[in-house]
Amino acid sequence: MKKDITRRGLGLGASALVLAAPAVRAQTAAPTAVKIGYAVSKTGPNAGGTAVSITPNYQLWVRNVNATGGLRLGDRRAPIEVVEYDDRSSSEDAVRAIERLVNQDKVDLILAPWGTALNLAIGPVMNRAGYPQIAVNAVTDRAPDLGRRWPNSFWFLGTSAEYAAGLVELLSKQREAGLIGNNIAMVSVADGFGIDLVNAARPALQRAGFRASYDRTYPVGTQDMAPILAEAARSNPDAFIAFSYPPDTLAITEQARVSGFNPKMFYVGVGTAFPLFKERFGANAEGVMGIGGWQADSPRVQEYMRQHKELVGREPDRWGSSVCYASLEMLQQAIERVGRIDRPAIIRELQTGTFDTILGPMKLEGNVRREQWVVGQWQNGEFMAVAPAAKAGARPPVLPKPAWRST
Amino acid sequence: MSNTALAIVLAGLAAMAALPFLDTGFWLALAISIAQYAVLATAWAMFSGPTRYVSLATAAFFGIGAYTVAVLGEVLPWPVVLLVAGVIGAVLSLLVGFATLRLSGVYFVVFTFGLAELIRQLVTWFEVNVTRSMGRYVFVEITQAQIYWQLLALFGALLALGTWLARSRLGFALHVIGEDETVARHVGIDTARAKVALFALSSVFMALVGAVMAPRWTYLDPAIAFNPSISFTVLIMALLGGTRSLLGPLLGVVPLALLFEVLTARFPNHFSILVGIVFLLVVYAVPQGVSGLLARLRRGAPA
Amino acid sequence: MEAAAATLVTGLVLGGMYALVAIGLTLQYGVARIMNLAYGEFVVAAAFAALWLFTSLGVSPLIGLALVMPLAFLANWAIYRIFLTPLVRRAPNAGALETDSILATFGLLFVVQGVMLALFGGAYQSYSYLSIPVEIFGATITANRLVALGFAAVIGGGLWFLLTHTRTGTAVRAVAVNPAAAPLVGIDMARTAALAFAAGGAVVASGGVLVSTFLTFNAAMGVVFTMKALVVVIMGGVGNLMGCLVAGLLLGLTETLVASFVDPGLTLAATYGLFLTILIARPAGLFGVAAR
Fold it and tell me: What global pTM score does this model have?
């Protein structure tokens, strides 16, 4: 027994030694390969969002690039070799994983994790190391500041003010058309995302002359939405707005359906754009609005959808996913224009260039992507972008929302 | 620990302080993580070892320290911020300590967990309804090396305190309580006061660690600051190392932190399963913690 | 008035769910003395099983219950016999067993979660079953929640009957009340504890199956259930079925009342506040006899 334990002790020591050697992936690619690393949340609370909007797109992009022989660097092609880690949804682990990618694995480029908090946590390290940080799944009002503070960071999903403005503009138009009145009910999840959005929405609604007769927040992890929905319904609103997270989005929609709460406009937050939403609610998804949206009729978007389905076995979400994929296309084009792994040059190219992506031409302003699709609506089984209305390709919203059907 | 031993350990810590001059990247990051858990686990064991109260409130005190920095970090000078964090931690721990004295066993465990969650919910509610913003940006000018040095200094202070405590009247009282609480009460020891005092000391260090670590992540929200996995990790590390001696927890912190690191680095997709298996192996193979194992090996007794 | 009645009904239904999820733990901890931190992972595993049966094979969750519960019983029996019995044997006292079981089930938590992640990935899951609105006293509630409540009542009642009216049940209760004296009256401790642990596991699984009909879940959510169940069990008093029920209902009611009449933002704060207050006032929980 004693010998046994000593051996185990030795094993532990040996694994510590292994740590000293840089982690080498099993398949050693040709020396010309470009090493791309990422640490994303495979476990922990962020795993749900990561599995929907991040990992499939990273995998799809790598597969597509390598299918053509790799990234075009000058006159040769360099295949991508991936180094991936799990940050376990923890800021501390994310920081350490990035340090490991930069200093131990010495990867050429790093792709960003899911969520505002993790992107902010790794910001200083990425900045110090001079790696471009393409933060896709992060909505923060500080995006323009952060772009200035860390010129290597790029923010793709815009600011909460944009989402609030787009939503209020849509509401105002519907009111002008006589389809809705002034009365709004609003709930938001008590987390960075929900609070940022509701803080932006409140003044915007007020300026536009709307009245929020119900305006409450609820904690992350609330399991029963019935009391909240009952109170919201009692205020008899023309429009219902929820800045919610995926589990809440489903629970709120379900509770609204069950209790027959059917305001003329029904808007829910993150998760509305998930394919899960359509699977779950079927015909009842029809007319529901939510954050995000895309131009489903664009052939390139359809091609992307087909590839995504083929690789992961399910459809992508209609908000972050396509933007994530487009951001990778941008990165690829920036690398290929520079023609070598020259990170400062790639950063400059991302800052100034215009790129051709599945979402059309894309250009960043002050390191931030402007002109998001901010509101989508399920129309005939597809989550169509409806706001901002001025953006080319926007569908007109369909109001009032049809009545819930019993399944 | 004897004075000589303490001196050797402190000298070792001083030597460790040279690390940032060798590497400021990955190894420093790893060292910060180990140092953080070293302080937390040692502080945890300082209270839970002799009293046998298993606390899950580590996240509560850690979070309070971190939040103090988020609120005051850009307003007050750094030492004052740390002082405030420590004082808040102490006050809260005294309140909690006196409230929980009647609880024992698992009731205390779950109470402390509930406490951490309650504080997290209250901070959330306060941020949402009073300051009307969620998530704070911590842009305190501080280098990673400075964070590391502060953690080392905290660890040194904690060890010195622990050594002194073991020889003080309080330490003696705690020793008796650890052996048999009824006996302790009969020989006239104020068990309640001794336990609460120890809880407060341990909590102050936890709050300070939270304060020191906060600037590392730029962004803080209640979910990050009061993350219950901090409590669990600390608990596991300390139990694995052994809570009987001052350096016991360290014997759990270092191997586990390295193991987590190796597993995440080499098996990112099977981390959970492997960590789980290792835990099970540890429970069966090292029943009294690493320090118990070492003691037995030294005595030459069969394991 | 109608609003208040509706709130009460909603609260009771939610509370019933909490009680249902916690009943299994009160058996596992109260009788077998295993502080099972992997408890929530078993809830989620059962939820995944129900999801898989329903979406792939078209088996209704209520029939799934009949499949999942015996399986869970066997699995938990095996877990207790293989993993936990050695710990029970070597533990010199209750405290040591507590520490060991925390460590071991913490490992189990990671293993089960890892397997679920490998099988199903981290994405959110949800399916629609019996989500038909039913109106009771002005509250509109989905049929699936009511069915869950009904089963909770049946399972709770059945357990209570078994515990109070059978020999084995009496043995189980004896172990819960006084583990030291139970062997003196000829109770086979190991068998009784394994039985309680396995029965607890089967109840947990039923909770997971029922909850999956109305909650959105993913592989990472186990800890939420573990903690909720622990709070309910501790608040009610360890090993006390009635305490478990009352504590669950109390938490559900508090949550719903606070959400309706105070502020939904304070629901969780209120439930934890209530829990802490009760513990301070009654250190062994609502129905607990005395601290061990």
Answer: 0.85
